[in-house]
Every structure is written in C-alpha cells, then in structure tokens.
Amino acid sequence: MAKAKTAFVCNECGSDYAKWQGQCQACKAWNSLSEIRLTSSKTPARVSASQDPRYQGYAGAITGIQSLSDVDLTDVPRFSSGASEFDRVLGGGLVPGGVVLIGGHPGAGKSTLLLQTMCWLAQQQSALYVTGEESLQQVAMRAQRLGLPMDNLKMLSETNVEAILNTAQQLKPKVMVIDSIQVMHLDGVESAPGSVSQVRESAAVLTRFAKQTQTVVLLVGHVTKDGSLAGPKVLEHMVDCSVLLEGSEDSRFRTLRGMKNRFGAVNELGVFAMLENGLKEVKNPSSIFLNRSNHPTAGSLVVVIWEGTRPLLVELQALVDDSPLGNPRRVTVGFDHNRLAMLLAVLHKHGGLLTSDQDVYLNVVGGVKVSETSADLAAISAVVSSFRDRVLPHDLVVMGEVGLSGEIRPVASGQERISEAAKHGFTRAVVPKANCPKKPIKGMTVIGVERLSEALDAIFEN
Ligand code: TYD
Ligand code: MG
Known about the structure:
metal-binding, Ribosomal Protein S5, domain 2, 25% strand, nine-stranded mixed β-sheet, nucleotide-binding, 21 strands, single chain, alpha/beta, four-stranded mixed β-sheet, Ribosomal_Su5_D2-typ_SF, binds thymidine-5'-diphosphate, Rossmann fold, DNA damage, binds magnesium ion, hydrolase, 462 residues
C-alpha cells in the first residue's frame, strides 16, 4: 500500500509546509503547525496520442468546455433569507449552492441570528438546522422564548459530517445551517475536532455537498481575539461569502459586515440590535451611533460617512494636550493612524497650527471604524477645536477629503450625506465646494469650501 501523504498546516494563517518546523514562515507564529493527512488522488493515466510534442501526455477528447457566453444563467435565482439586513450583506439574498461563513466572537449572536432567520425561512423553504454546540432542548427553549414559529424547522444534533450529509441527502433541505464548523469531524481524519485538518476537510466535504445538491450551506465559525477566523484561514478561500457579526460587549448593537462575496459587493453593512427578545433589525441605522451629551465639549464633531449604500452619522472626538514626551503620542481608535499623522502635517503647513509638541488622540465614538477619506476635514477640525478649546456648534456637520496641498476634495454622494444630516436636525454643513447642492436643502445652511484655511475660518467663525 502506498504511504499516506501528509502536510503541515499553520493553525493561524493556513499556509502549508512539507516538513514540520517550529515557526510558521508566513505569519511567524510559534508552534502553530499541525499535521494533516492528504487524501490520495490517483494520477490520471497518460495517453500519448497527441501529435504536438508540447502536449505529449495530455491528449484526449475535450469535454466540459463551453464558451463563456453560452453558460446557462437562468438557474441562479436568489431567494430572500427573510431578514432584509442579512440579505443586504449577502448582496441581495441566498444563492442556491452557495456556502456562507458567518464569523463572530462567542456571544456575538450568530446562533440567535441564524435560529431566527431559519425559523422564519422554514415557513417557505425546507430548512435543516444542525447544532453541534447546544443541545436540542437549549435551542428549542431559546426559540420558544423568542416567540419564533417552531413547527417547520428540522433540527439535528450531530457533529459527524458523514451522518449529517446522510440525513441531508434524505431530507433534501434547501438551506442547511452548521453550528459550528469547529465542532464538526470526519471519520477519515485522525485528529481532534477543531483542529485545522478536521475543520478544513469538513468544510471541503460540506462545500462539495452544497455545490452538487444546490443546497445553501451556512457555516458558523468562531473568531479569535484579534478578529481573524479561528483555525485555518483556508475556510475563507473555500466559501462563497464570508460575513462577520461584530459588536462591542457594552453595546447592544451588532453589525454584520461582508468580508468576501462571490455574488455581490462586500462593502455592505447590516445593523441589528440585541434585545431581550432576540436580534432586531435596525432599518434606519444612520444615527444609532450618535448619542451626544447635551453639553457640547471641545474636540467633538459629527461627520457623515458612507457605508455600502447608505449614510451613517458618527461623532469624532479629538484630545490635544501638551506632551511630556520627546516623541509625542498619536493615538487613534477607529481611524487610520498614518492618515492622522498626514493630516497633522497638512494642518501645520496649510492651517498654521503646529502640533509637534502635543499628544493627539482621535476617537470614533461607538466603536465604528472610519476608513473613508471623507472624515479628513472633520478630523482636522476636531483637533483644532480641542487645541484651541473652542466648542463647535452642536448642529454642525463637516465633511471633505483633505489633500496634501491643503485643498478640500469632494466626496462621493455628497448631496445624500447633507440631506441625511438635515433629517437628523443638523442645520449647518461645511462641505467641499463641488458637493454644494444645486437646490437648497430645507433647514440646512451649506457652506462650500475649497481650501483648508477657508474651511477652518468657516468652521471657527463665531
Ligand atoms: P448566541 O447567539 O448564543 O451567540 P453565538 O452563537 O455567537 O456564540 O448569543 C448569545 C448572546 O446574546 C448571549 O450572551 C445573550 C445575548 N442574548 C440576548 O441579549 N437576548 C436574546 O434574546 C438572546 C437569545 C441572546
Ligand atoms: Mg452559538
């Protein structure tokens, strides 16, 4: 019998090696390699009938090839998961044969989200919920407490993938949930559940099943402290969509964010609130992170950012203070660190404010991450406000990208952002000149600016 082939895979990043070694060369993690057994694949018999010597050994009839334009597109109807925020993140709904990985910290609400979704979905489609972590009683108690329709959802408490697929083959569900992939195991793989080889092989088998039977498979996966998916990164390569359910512990809001999507855009954000009776969709989340005190303070300013297809109002806070250090601190939470350093340089050169002897802290309130450049002008203004100890008006929003030569550049969807701010009671907006709306927006005074100095004058005029 031929010797079984093995490889060594890093638990942290998924890179593989032929030999064991103490440190992973790719991610530098120590003692993270574990052995996996590769399933032996027979090498195809070679037929040397080709005339062209370059293709010796590759002859044979051409099968399975068709022109891209001939591929049948009619049979990919999406269907709704029943939760519109979930659909939005998936790019419009579930796709038959699609494999979706739902990641999140323990306690984020993955099981709750899927249980709710499946109970409602089961009213129209056949659905199977496989729980490997909780007992059937626990799940049923939760469903009852949340007041979900419980009669149509099929439940299975099982961790053996072969057994699950046997059941699924008979039941033929349209949607199947695996909660969670980390507790699943295959008979043929000799390592503990949760190890790289088990997770990888189990996911591969489930993915193949999804593609062959056109079943939607939703995999639950736990993430490590630093936010990466626990165990093999390879999971992310295998699945069609990967979404992350996040939320800080002290906040009841949970955001569902697409990380990878083969069927749609990834910049969509779904927002839920975790209440006593389960996760509720937040249909109009633009101001949920805006919870300002009634006493305006220096260094605080609101900016409208764009998340996927909708605006979100967030508060920026800056604190600028004399630094006792030779190399003053620049600390950011939710904002790019290098971008702040760059903006401070622009502020010095074009705004005439030197911060090289000051510690600068910049925080985005509510645990939101701002990756857009539209918050540049607001960040600079918050810094200036804190430095000069000048309180900015409560009804002011500021947006605009700041270029290295001190110019204020337009932002995408400027008009919609201004309208959204107006809806939430803001009455003054300082925006890039190119974003000035053609028609006046009711209740909103818009000031268009082109240069940083001009913008600071407009913001700190009174
Ligand atoms: P759960 O779905 O079990 O998390 P995961 O599967 O991601 O580990 O959610 C658990 C948390 O949600 C739990 O700690 C309590 C909270 N929760 C509520 O606040 N309200 C509810 O109605 C439910 C069901 C859970
Ligand atoms: Mg769970």
